[in-house]
Amino acid sequence: MALLDVRDLSVRFGGVIALDGVSFSVEAGQVVAVIGPNGAGKTTLFNVVTRVYRPAGGSVHLDGQSVLGISPHQVIKRGLARTFQNVALFRSMTVLENVLVGNHSRTHTTFLGAAVPTPGASRMESEARKRAMEVLEFVGLAGRAAEPVASLPFGTQKKVELARALASKPRLLLLDEPAGGISHEEVGGVAALLRRIHSELDVTVLLVEHNMGFVMGLSDHVVVLDFGRKIAEGTPDQIQRNPAVIEAYLGAA
Amino acid sequence: MTALRNAPPRYALVVLVVLFFAGLPTVVTSFQSLEWAGVLIFAIAIMGLNVLVGYNGQISLGHGAFMALGAYTTAILVHRYQLNYLVTIPIAGLLTGLVGFFLGIPALRLSPLYLALATFALAVVTPSLIKRPEGLTNGVQGIQLLPPDPPPLLSDVFSLVNGGQPMTSEQWLYYLSFAIALLLFWVAWNLIRHRPGRALRAIRDGEVAAAAFGVNVAGYKTLAFGLSAFYAGVAGSLYGLATGFVSPDTFPVSLSFQLLVGAVIGGLASIAGPLVGGIFTYWLPIVSSQFVSDQTWIPSQISAVFVNAGPAVTYGALLILIMIFAPNGVVGLILSGYRRLRDRLRGAGERGTGQMPPDHQTI
Ligand SMILES: Nc1ncnc2c1ncn2[C@@H]1O[C@H](COP(=O)(O)OP(=O)(O)O)[C@@H](O)[C@H]1O
Ligand SMILES: [Mg+2]
Prior knowledge:
- The complex is a heterodimer of chains A (253) and B (363).
- Chain A has 253 residues and is of the alpha/beta class.
- Helices cover 36% and strands 24% of the residues of chain A.
- A 6-stranded mixed beta sheet of chain A has the order 6-7-8-3-9-10, sandwiched between helices. Chain A has a 4-stranded antiparallel beta sheet with strand order 2-1-4-5, with helices on one face.
- Chain B contains 16 helices and 2 strands.
- The longest helix of chain B has 27 residues, at 217-243.
């Protein structure tokens, strides 16, 4: 059974059809890329899977269970973590605190438990901090844990987002343009980091990019969207040779 | 030297502040102690507002109404049902917190502007709501509360450090407010640096991202409202006890404004901010009207106008100044000055040691 299964997904915003009957699936252990020009519906796809938007039709199953009936805040408990295209960090917080919020779903200290901290709550907090530091170590940001995120360069902020998502120990990581808006020199580092996340942490990755070069060396499987419709899918090699893709996507670029 | 430079100075500062407030009644008059109790009571209410506005990003222009509910809960329970006043303080807090929690549910559906209007409406109707059930609230007449006697043991201990003078009722009210303020500030500090506080702040910074990481946005926002009202309820209860009299006029609309202005002036999203805010909220109306009437060169007709409008004018001017020059309030101003100094002292290049950082933003 596929880890993520998207069937006939349609999303409308007023007159705009953002997604039009899109189907594909992600097998556990894969790196799958969704590519397509700006406005193709890639971010919308993520927003449906993470319950930010309600689809007009279709289904999304994780491990055979529908996610469309659950609340946005329950998505992470199913093992699904994401990053945001334009970086949605908690801007008033430090790097470490951001990663700690990534840990929210794996801890359960309540208002009462924190108000008068019990030894249990304190232990849970220090364990959470330890885990967060480990994740920061993994992405190479341990030395910047105490810095406020707002003052970091964009590329570093994207790494913090990755760390925050990893802190939730996801099975499936949704990455919205992980290489978007960062400098040429940094792109290689991001690709290497994603490879390590995939192999060392055993996380399945679904990523969105419109930078085709970036995904080709990275993914097992590529889905191409154009104007909300899936126009092709296959291995990177097949996609690069697909005339419809070249026409719709490369031709436009 | 390095150890000294790296030691968190705020713990020393906290100890100093606590000692200052603990010793205050031994150096000021009994009446002045009561005034400072007012400062601490406002600080408690502002801390509640700070949880809601500063940390959670919601808004309330109606916290005076929550204070009123707390004050009347205590007044009615003490006056009508002869309950011990100490017992009524947590009851007032819990009842107000519960009301706040339930008001927080419809608040979820309101945009910030409409939430401001709705809470403002609450503050507006509160005085007339209080007047209605006359049998319970005594209407416009209000309810008188007798000044409580200090516990004998405390009074004796106090007289040891106070040159043999026993503790007055006013001093006891001060210490009661001080103890409760200390407890509630500690609780707020605990909340903020643990999981629930981070969730509150995450919501303020971005609801979609917060939800994506498992924060139940609606649940936390409602809880923040309840918690915030709880603080205001406790503050109201103490306010009633400290003033010895509650009436509808004790809780005018302007009280809600004063609290919010105090929260902003002190510094939102900071633990020390509400204390500074409490000082401003309590003393500003008094000091500013005294200041104007003390200026002999101002013609008396003009100064009379000012004394009436004075606090409002001063509040407005101060708020504008704070928003321009210190958007993070007085505490934010001090902190950024301190950080600049520290960075100078430490010099660059000491960063990136990979050490576990201390709690950030917890004072
Ligand atoms: N919240 C929204 N409201 C209205 N239209 C939207 C919204 N989100 C996306 N769209 C529209 O849906 C289409 C797909 O957008 P998006 O998913 O962001 O594309 P991509 O991520 O592939 O660049 C675009 O036409 C966009 O304008
Ligand atoms: Mg997009």
